[in-house]
Write a structure and sequence with these properties.
The structure holds two protein chains of two kinds. Chain A is α/β, with parallel strands linked by helices. Chain A has two domains: 143 residues, Orthogonal Bundle (Arc Repressor Mutant, subunit A), CATH 1.10.10.10; 217 residues, Dna Topoisomerase Vi A Subunit, Chain: A, domain 2. Chain A is built from 15 helices and 17 strands. A six-stranded mixed β-sheet of chain A has the order 10-7-13-12-14-15, sandwiched between helices. A three-stranded antiparallel β-sheet of chain A has the order 9-8-11, with no helix packed on it. In chain A, strands 1-4 form a two-stranded antiparallel sheet. In chain A, a hairpin with a 2-residue loop joins strand 8 and strand 9. By secondary structure, chain B is of the alpha+beta class. Chain B has 14 helices and 15 strands. In chain B, helix 3 runs antiparallel to helix 5, helix 8 packs across helix 9 and helix 9 crosses helix 10. At the A-B interface, helix 1, helix 2 and helix 3 of A face helix 13 and helix 14 of B.
Chain lengths: 398, 591
């Protein structure tokens, strides 16, 4: 396959003189390559380009369609209990002053992706930015002003090619950690998550089955906490050992890698997912993303959302229930209030009386609380009392 | 409260009686009055005095030429004798002045043909040139020298005049007959005035140079030759070869007079019956209207004028106000006209866009008047300063008292923001703009005798604003279009920039022919922007080739600066170095 592609490439690349990024010849490295999937992705890129070329030569306006990634084009699938992307698309055309530059950038990055796939390598988002970056001949204009510009285009490209970022050989900056009673095989390396010390195993950005396999899992459930500080507390107390679980953390809004990892462990290993997040609209939203999927990546919900994930806390009633001190109160600001109301109105929260009550209580309280607030009771209160109690009582929000 | 004290020291008072006072009471001659109050005539300081003297002489010269049906050629020479003394020579090719009238015209204040009639002319009262002569006499003691020739076969007279200010009477010092002086008067007729006076020469604003330049704008039919104190000769060429129509003299319009004037007219009329008075002494009143007015005042056309007293006059006045009378005839007004206005502006102002508009005549206080406005925009005009307002009354530039002038106020009151210009609050707009406002009238209401500013009548200001708005709209259309064209060309360049990248990418991905694709896309980009180029403008007509502006009589758009005759040291030419690089505007409507 690889050889075939190379010959194809040479015939087609003959006319092109400038290749901004030279990809060095591939040495045999220990790497997992899903050739079938790559071929399909290349095909998609070529189809898109061919249609543009055909339109141009026929003196028709060169355009391509991009599914719209916004709330308006989002729908909640009640049966699957996940967010799905609607069928609305926007047209990106070259001869529209506002879109001209983006059109050019899209093609640049499409070309970059094809080169990447051909080289059987992956690049970070920042790497892709540099790959497409050069000064346009005869001008002082750069193809990209900053990385955020290329990131946006890559997301557009993903949806319009109906290909995942992983399929385009691009990964995001990794964020999120995990530790627990599981051994995984990451890119051929066996990793025992029981022996990760205090730092934990950094969840990679790409957790597709071809890269990541599970092996030897003893855990009973997954506890996902909002951020690193809380996770460290749990890890230090070796909570995963005493309660036989997997402990993950997503540094706030969990990145794709973490979500994909959680999804796969949930689906493939049948582990329930409990979330320990702050009692504020942001925490609620993180839960919503884990459970239903995000608006921006709605096209990937099926591969990422965990509709059965449970919300463990912090609960708004905890202030009274646990008799916390006044010091933990963080006043809700106007933005929090509007955000909370928005979340309460989400279709997937709308029909849930408990959630409505939860948000209402928080609004009535007029303050929010962080997971760390439990430290005021005792340094290890959260690991020794709070979570075990919730688990025992089975007191979760769905 | 301080107590009012009676002065302890008694002042010695003259305690004049009526008789002793009578001894000091005597006639004041007009010339004496003006000699003391020369600032009223515009001779306040040496610089202004010199300008006023030239202005009066040139105005008279132009009036004389036009009345004589001759295309004016005015020669002005300012010769510096010493630090503060100048000798002014103004020569015209007019019909000349008969010998007998020379001393009266130049040596007597308030003597002239223009005061007693309602006719559009530059001069009005007959004060100007004699006052200039008087000023010269007072400051230097030198008399006026007038040379005039009325025809090829007639001798040229040289008269040296002094005036007796106490008697308002000229004294002829010498009177000689020149032999046929063809070098002075090439066409065989004309007048030359020489005045020596104390003055100061300075360039820039309110200078002789500026005055002559603006005169050239308002009188495109005149040729002016100007020899500066530094002995340079500046030529202001003729822009059009035809004389403006001769303005007609008119009688007052009934709606335009006040009660006092009406009573005066009744007292002075030669008519014996009311009907005759109304029809003969006024314009626009026929037998029917006369009957209607008389009836409204409970009188008839047969009523004897003698019987019309104060109360009757008042009734008559009211009746006139109630009666509908058509506006005064307007053939008494001769505006410069949009075409000539543009021609004048085009030759003196380095702008890229010119628009002019002439309002229909209107009436203030029964005096017909008409407003013309022309604007020049862009090109070599100063970009950062506020706009320049050129004010004219009956083709005479007004250089002083700008802010108290009606026309200046009208410019400031017009909302130029609507036309794409910036305008500080309560001020004239800023940007590369020249606004020219011209008022023609049988009687221009000046705020003072020195004729510096037009009085602020509501009717006049309204007309000015309407004319300004008309020009402003044209400018707005032009600026909007210019902006759009800039946008289009920018659009094209954006497309062209990206097309190369796209072709290369497509080549890299699917192996499409880079050149072929590039050419195909470029073709499409050109086509698309061309379509946009000729898009409809706001008024729904195609702008290019005979669009709204293109076919407009009152608009000239200059493509490149070299279209305008070069002139170096004018007040408009200072910023010429900024060359406009605009390629999108095409030349249209050139005369």
């Amino acid at each position: 396959m690889a050889k075939k592609k190379t010959t194809k490439k040479t015939t087609k690349k003959k006319a092109s003189k400038k290749v901004p990024v030279k990809i060095l010849g591939k040495k045999t490295m220990k790497r997992v390559v899903d050739k079938k999937r790559d071929a399909a992705t290349v095909k998609k890129i070529e189809t898109l380009t061919t249609s543009i070329v055909k339109k141009s030569l026929a003196q028709k306006e060169p355009t391509f369609e991009i599914p719209i990634r916004s709330v308006t084009n989002m729908k909640y699938n009640k049966k699957k209990r996940i967010l799905e992307m609607g069928s609305n698309t926007q047209t990106r055309s070259l001869f529209n002053l506002g879109q001209s530059r983006k059109f050019m950038q899209s093609l640049l990055l499409a070309k970059g992706c094809k080169d990447l796939i051909a080289a059987e390598k992956t690049l970070s988002l920042r790497g892709m930015y540099y790959m497409g970056l050069h000064t346009i001949a005869g001008t002082k204009e750069k193809t990209f002003n900053d990385q955020s510009e290329s990131d946006g285009i890559l997301e557009d490209l993903e949806v319009s090619l109906d290909g995942l970022r992983e399929e385009l050989h691009i990964f995001a900056k990794k964020r999120g950690t995990m530790v627990g009673n599981i051994t995984v095989v990451d890119n051929g390396d066996e990793i025992n998550c029981r022996k990760m010390g205090s730092g934990g195993y950094a969840i990679p950005s790409i957790c597709e089955p071809n890269v990541m396999q599970f092996k030897n899992c003893d855990a009973d459930f997954i506890l996902h906490v909002e951020k690193d500080t809380v996770w460290s507390r749990f890890n230090e107390d070796r909570f995963w050992e005493t309660h036989n679980c997997i402990l993950t953390e997503g540094s706030g809004q969990p990145p794709r890698g973490v979500r994909r990892m959680l999804h796969r462990m949930h689906k493939e290993l049948g582990l329930p997912v409990y979330c320990l997040l702050d009692c504020d609209p942001w925490g609620h939203y993180i839960y919503s993303v884990i459970k239903q999927g995000s608006i921006n990546l709605a096209f990937e919900s099926e591969r990422m959302a965990i509709p059965d994930a449970k919300f463990m806390g912090i609960r708004s009633k905890d202030y009274d229930r646990l008799d916390l001190s006044d010091d933990v109160k963080i006043e809700l600001n106007d933005r929090d209030i509007t955000r909370a109301k928005q979340i309460a109105a989400y279709p997937w929260f709308e029909g849930k009386r408990e959630w409505q009550r939860e948000i209402k209580t928080m609004l009535n309280n007029g303050f929010k609380m962080e997971v760390e607030s439990l430290i005021t009771k005792d340094i290890s209160y959260v690991t020794e009392v709070y979570v075990p109690q919730r688990l025992k009582e089975g007191d979760f929000l769905d | 409260m301080p107590k009012t004290k009676t002065p302890s020291k008694k002042k010695t008072r003259s305690n004049a009686t009526a008789e002793t006072m009578a001894a000091g009471q005597r006639d004041i001659s007009v010339s004496e009055f003006f000699a003391k109050n020369r600032h009223l005539l515009g001779f306040d300081n040496p610089r202004k005095a010199m300008l006023t003297a030239i202005k009066e002489a040139v105005d008279n010269a132009l009036d004389a030429c036009e009345e004589g049906g001759i295309l004016p050629h005015i020669y002005v020479r300012v010769l510096q004798i010493n630090e503060s003394r100048f000798k002014l020579t103004i020569r015209d090719n007019g019909p000349g002045i008969v010998r007998a009238q020379i001393e009266n015209i130049f040596g007597k204040l308030l003597y002239g043909s223009k005061f007693h009639r309602l006719k559009m002319s530059r001069g009005q009262q007959g004060i100007g040139i004699s006052a200039a002569g008087m000023y010269g006499l007072m400051t230097t003691g030198k008399p006026l020298i007038i040379i005039s020739k009325t025809g090829k076969r007639k001798p040229a007279h040289e008269v040296v005049l002094k005036m007796d200010t106490s008697k308002n009477r000229p004294t002829v010092i010498s009177d000689s007959e020149h032999p046929e002086d063809d070098t002075l008067f090439e066409e065989g007729h004309g007048t030359q005035v020489t005045i020596e006076l104390e003055g100061k020469y300075q360039k820039g604003r309110q200078s002789i140079d500026e005055y002559l330049e603006q005169t050239a704008i308002a009188n495109p039919h005149a040729r002016i030759t100007y020899v500066t104190p530094t002995n340079e000769t500046l030529e202001f060429p003729r822009a059009i070869e035809e004389l403006p129509e001769e303005p007609k003299e008119i009688k007052p319009h009934p709606k335009g007079i006040e009660l006092g004037t009406l009573i005066q007219m009744i007292e002075r009329t030669e008519q014996r019956q009311l009907g005759g008075f109304l029809t003969k002494d006024f314009c626009r009143v026929g037998a029917t209207k006369a009957r209607e007015i008389s009836k409204g005042a409970d009188m008839t056309g047969q009523t004897w004028i003698k019987t019309v007293g104060h109360t009757e006059a008042e009734k008559l006045y009211e009746s006139i106000q109630k009666t509908r009378i058509i506006a005064p005839s307007t053939d008494c007004l001769v505006p410069i006209g949009s075409k000539a206005l543009l021609a004048g502006l085009l030759k003196e102002v380095k702008a890229e866009f010119f628009a002019a508009s002439t309002r229909p005549p209107n009436v203030y206080r029964g005096n017909p008047f008409q407003i013309e406005v022309a604007i020049g925009y862009g090109g070599g005009l100063g970009r950062d300063d506020s706009a320049k307002v050129l004010r004219f009354a009956n083709r005479v530039p007004l250089l002083y008292s700008q802010s108290s002038c009606c026309s200046f106020k009208a410019v400031a009151e017009t909302s130029w923001k609507n036309y794409g210009l910036t305008q500080p609050k309560n001020s004239i707009p800023s940007g590369p703009l020249v606004v020219m406002i011209h008022m023609v009238s049988v009687w221009v209401p000046f705020t003072s005798e020195s004729k510096e500013a037009i009085a602020d009548y509501d009717e006049i200001r309204k007309e000015m604003k309407l004319a300004l708005q008309e020009c402003g709209r044209k400018l707005g259309t032009y600026l909007r279009r210019r902006k759009r064209m800039a946008r289009e060309s920018e659009r094209r360049s954006v497309f062209e920039r990206y097309i190369g990248e796209i072709s290369r990418c497509c080549n890299a991905i699917v192996g499409a022919d880079t050149d072929k694709l590039y050419k195909a896309l470029l073709k499409q980009a050109k086509r698309r922007t061309d379509e946009a180029d000729s898009q409809l403008d706001d008024e729904g007509q195609v702008v290019d080739n005979g669009g709204r502006l293109g076919s407009n009589e009152g608009v000239i758009i200059v493509d490149e600066l070299q279209d305008i005759p070069d002139q170096d040291d004018t007040l408009f030419g200072k910023t010429t170095k900024k060359k406009t690089k605009k390629k999108t505007t095409r030349k249209r409507g050139k005369k």
